[in-house]
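[Archive record]
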Amino acid sequence: MSILRFRPEVWSANLLVALRKILVYGDIVNHDYEGEIQQAGDTVRITSIGRPTIQDYVPNSTTISPEELTDAQRTLVVDQSKYFAFQVDDVDARQAKGNVIPQAMSEAAYGLADVMDQYIAGLYTGASSANQLGAVDLTAGSKTAYADVLVPLKVALDEANVPTQGRFVVVSPAIHGNLLLDSRFINASASGTTDALVNGHVGRAAGFDVRVSNNTPASGGHPVVIAGNTGAISFAQQINKTEAYRPESSFSDAVKGLALYGAKVVRPDNLATAVVTVS
């Protein structure tokens, strides 16, 4: 073979990392029942008690008869199982200048988190029917995301007696773009808050921490805006393992990971939704 035909290959030590979406929905849930699931099993039955009736009392006249309280039960089940597994041959690892396995592990962990994020986003259908605002067309007339989406969502939650602390709203990039054209959003004082824009959020408006996500669910091809309070959805993860090992059938290093998790809308009144048409 002619030496002129020999072409050495150079593997760069600088790995090209895949572009990542910002994961949002996993950050707006609570983990109130996760401890019970991890210790006892894959199901938690959550009992809620009805409110006693308030009645008039007339001294020396009223006969008090205690009422039986009503209860309701919801079930949070760890019913989602996801895994990843990959290997890097010793020869390939020797040729690669970059440290491939740690980066691949990071990408796999992100992949699991992204799947969980989309799963949580899909729970928007569990919102109370009274808080499902239906369709809002921002392409019609002079409607804006601030006045015709955020404010009605705020009112719906206010009327459902949802605590103002911990309120969030998650919008798509297109809806965020609509908000950026509105001075009530970009000017913190005009939006009814004195908070400056902070890292991890895209702003505050109408009493919400506003977040933007590419995992926004869709209904009829249109993004669904989800608003609520962190008490609305409970998330529980029972197993989250990552193990490195040497497969017997090859000379390679392998890594596998497993995640078992589940989520439940435990307070439907604490969620509100709107299906938004935006250009």
